[in-house]
Amino acid sequence: MSASVPARAALGVFPTPLALLPRLSESLRGPRILVKRDDLSGLALGGNKVRKLEYLAADALARGCDCLVTGGAAQSNHCRQTAAAAAALGLGCHLALAGGRPEAPSGNFLLDLLLGAQIHWSGPDRKGERIPLIAAELRAAGRNPYVIPYGGSNEIGALGFVAAAGELAAQLGAAGEQVDAIVFASSSGGTQAGLVVGARLHELRSAVVGIAIDKGEAGEGPFAERVLELAEKAASIAAPGERFAPADIVLKEGYVGGGYGVVGELERRAIRLAARTEGLLLDPVYTGRAFGALVDLIEKGEFTRGQTVLFWHTGGAPALFSYASSLI
Ligand SMILES: *Cc1c(COP(=O)(O)O)cnc(C)c1O
Predict the structure, then answer these.
(1) Which stretches of the chain drop beneath a pLDDT of 70?
(2) Tens digits of per-residue pLDDT, 227-260?
């Protein structure tokens, strides 16, 4: 990457493991399946947001901020990892969480409390809509907040996944592997934007295939366009001169089922399959859905024997416990 790429705070454990899932490939009679274990990224039960937060938190420190502010769903993995990053760096943390305080804290929300985050219940706003309001209140109270958008998906956060593609390229090179496609859950877009830029920069020669796990909200504009815009912004920092086109953003949008966070048969089946054939835990909201989509694509013949597909495990298993009643 160019010298203008911002600093990175050491928060996670990298590189995350790269492993083969032979029993899964066999049971699906499909392609070789590799898994990139970002669920093992190390900070407070791991997940993909740690990569983004290494850049975002470094920026917050460089600007002399004293707290991080972000938001999301009540079971947001991003919010839990942000709370952990703040704790590890001695910063305060304010989270705008959807809904109202549950009677019994569980899953990610329980961890937010243990990590010392201050919670701002936000009713129907599940994508951090109240972040600017909270930041303004903090400024008025003399604090210096650092605002992290929903999912950590701005050009600085996306740099984490530009670097992740480089990490993967080194692992594949050392193992003498080449993958035909990289498949993962895509929601706020920073993971996909970073991977698209990073795959180009590090010459991965793999299709980068996002599985949309959320329906867009009215007024947000098409998701693929937002990912493209984010990729262009991240490239302006990490890969100046590289240009991206709509064809670079491959999104499968037919798997959103009952909507964000609603577990259906696709997710249940995928979670059980990965657990029972490989001892691999997926999550109910993101990786369960994305892996279910991958199984469907294999069953439809889009990925076949002789190919190698990499499933990027983006984390999320801490939410399993709060979804118990829809999983079994
Ligand atoms: C946030 C998240 C994603 C989606 O990543 P984006 O960069 O927001 O698209 C996927 N999986 C898990 C477990 C997540 O928490």
Answers:
(1) 1-4
(2) 999 999 999 999 999 999 999 999 999 999 999 9
Q: Which atom of ligand 1 has the smallest separation from the CA of 81?
A: 15
Question: For ligand 1, is residue 41 a contact (CB within 6 Å)?
Answer: no
For ligand 1, atom 15: residue with the closest CA: 77
Structure tokens at 322: 């709060």
Same domain, 142 and 158: no
How close is the Cα of 217 to the center of ligand 1, in Å? 17
> Whole-prediction pTM value?
0.97
CB 152 near ligand 1, within 6 Å: no
Q: Which of 119, 105, 33, 108 is nearest to 77 (CA)?
A: 108
Report whether residue 188 contacts ligand 1, using a CB cutoff of 6 Å: yes
Q: How many domains, in total, are found in the chain?
A: 2
> 189: Cβ below 6 Å to ligand 1?
yes
Which of 35, 53, 223, 286 has the most ligand 1 atoms within 8 A of CB, as the residue to mutate?
286
Q: Is residue 12 part of a domain?
A: no
Atom of ligand 1 nearest to the CA of 150: 8
**Residue 65's domain spans which residues?**
49-152
Residue 208 and residue 176 in one domain? yes
Atom of ligand 1 nearest to the CA of 316: 13
Ligand 1 contact, 315 CB (< 6 A): yes
**Same domain for 141 and 209?**
no
144 and 287 fall within a common domain: no
Buried b (16+ CB within 10 A) or exposed e, 5-39: beebbebbebebebeebebbbeebebbbbbbbbbb
CATH of the domain at 206: 3.40.50.1100
**Are residue 55 and residue 160 in the same domain, yes or no?**
no
30 and 62 fall within a common domain: no
284 lines ligand 1 (CB under 6 A): no
Q: How far is the C-alpha of 8 from the C-alpha of 62, rounded, in Å? A: 10
- Give pLDDT tens digits for 254-311: 999 999 999 999 999 999 999 999 999 999 999 999 999 999 999 999 999 999 999 9
The candidate with the shortest Cα–Cα distance to 31, out of 300, 314, 315, 268, is: 300
Asked if 41 and 54 sit in the same domain, the reply is: no
In angstroms, the CA 287 to CA 285 distance is 7
Residue 290 belongs to some domain of the structure: yes
Q: How far is CA 187 from the centre of its chain?
A: 7
